[in-house]
Amino acid sequence: MMNKQDKPDIKTDYHLNQIRQVLSKRYGIQKKPDQLSVHQYQNVQDKISYIGQIPELENNYTNNNREQVIRNFKFQYVNWFSKNTCFALGYNKKSQKGLGQGHYLIYDLIDWKMHYKKFSDEEAIVGLLSQEYLNKMFGIGSQGGIYQIEKGQEKFEQRPILQVNVRNISSATYAPTHAKIALGSFDQKIYIYDVTGSIYGDLKGHGKEVTSVDWSPVYSLLLSGSEDESIRLWDPRSLEEVVSLKRHNLGVKKVKINNQYFLTTDEKYQTLLFDLRQLNKEMYKLPRSQALCWNSKYDNIFYLGDHLGAITSWNVSAPNTPIFQAKKNDTQLVDIAMEGQFMACIRQRLDKPDQMEVYKVS
Question: pTM for this structure?
Answer without folding.
Answer: 0.85
